[in-house]
Each structure stands twice: as C-alpha cells, then as structure tokens.
Design goal:
Elements lengths: L2 H10 L10 H11 L22 H7 L8
Amino acid sequence: MKMKEIRAIAREIDIKIPVTLSKIEAVRLIQRTEGNFDCFARAADGFCDQDGCIFLEDCLILSPKQNKAK
C-alpha cells in the first residue's frame, strides 16, 4: 500500500498524517485512533492472526524476521 492510500484512509477517519511520519508510524497512528493495537510491522516470525486487517500484506513484508539461535 502506498502512502497516498494510507493518507486517504486516514482522511476518512479525520486523521491528518504529518509529512514527516514514516509509513509504519502512519499506519500505527491509524490503528491507535481506531482503538486497535498499533502492531503494524511487528509480526513475530512472519505470523499475524489479524487476517481481516487491510494492512496485513505490507505488515508481514515490513516485519523483521527473527532469527533463532540453534
């Protein structure tokens, strides 16, 4: 999802996204405003159970992969 789309979603719920905010922080701001956890890009090991989230695809791509020591 591009920032233009994220800003459009924010406008629908009366949020103004500052120009200096990163994509991750912008989505987290939307999540907090909607009363949700600000979990975007924090999926552990590429797993998230929020399959109805409109940000899921980008979230999984941007989430850090955790390397487990063997």
